[in-house]
Amino acid sequence: MQEIDFISANHVKTSRNYIQRVVEHDKAKCASIAKQWGYDYWDGARQHGYGGMNYDGRWLPIAQRIADHYGFKPEMKILDVGCGKGFFLYELTQTVPGIKIAGLDISRYAINNAKEEVKPFLKTGNCKALPWGDDSFDFVFSSNVFHNLYNFELNSALKEMERVSSGQKYICVESYRNEVEKANLLYWQLTCETFFTPDEWLWFFNEAGYSGDYGFIFFE
Q: CATH topology for 8-218?
């Protein structure tokens, strides 16, 4: 288990006005709308979520880095827990032709509006009870999902990720290292239920017996 940064290069490309996020709109109302995981969160106004999640290829470099690092080959089975519209999985199919993919997301809207090429391989469901058998996948991936769980849900979700993987795994979550990053995270987030430092996240990983790699997103 080691910390690896695959994602922050994309994260820092987005400009964020943290104070404006709090004062321009009713933040509590926006968060309540976002947590419905419907149109407003994915494709509605920016204050409710992504402000329109359209395919633009930004996940391709990430898919390439991950595929190279873990040595993906055709016929390997890959699961994305919290797959959204399936953009990362699509990019993996372009990076490693012949790879076998599966995805799960709590949002029925995201699955119904997923990229057409990968939609047949996606399911609606909850990461606390993955609908696959033990050791079903060669690699299990999850980004920007587990911080949306309550702390008492993390153990079961992490154990499920461990259970369905035959070996390699990677989780990326939002975190903070100082008071500035903590404030920025609180200002910007809409769906977080857990606000942990890296050391706290590692404690949860160890308690659940999670053996995969991990990374963090910070709001600097």
A: Rossmann fold (3.40.50)
Decide the pairing of beta strands 122-124 and 100-105.
parallel
165-175 and 213-218 as β-strands: parallel, antiparallel, unpaired?
Answer: parallel
pLDDT at 12 exceeding the cut of 80: no
- In angstroms, the CA 114 to CA 87 distance is 8
Sheet containing 122-124, strands listed edge to edge, beginning at the edge strand earlier in sequence? 122-124, 100-105, 77-81, 137-143, 165-175, 213-218
Q: What angle do CA 148, 154, 157 make, to 5 degrees?
A: 95
Enumerate the domain spans of the chain.
8-218
Long-range contacts of 31-34 (CB under 8 A, 24+ apart): 31/189, 31/190, 31/191, 34/190, 34/191
Q: Which amino acid is at 30?
A: C
Measured from the Cβ of residue 160, the count of other Cβ atoms closer than 10 Å reads 20
State how far the Cα of 14 lies from the Cα of 219, in Å rounded to an integer: 11
Which pTM was predicted?
Answer: 0.91
Parallel/antiparallel/unpaired status of strands 122-124 and 137-143: unpaired
Rounded to whole angstroms, the Cα distance separating 41 from 107 reads 10
- Please say whether the beta carbons of 136 and 105 come within 8 A: no
Task: Give whole-number Cα distances, 57 to 86, 156, 217, in Å.
Answer: 12, 33, 20
pLDDT of residue 37: 95
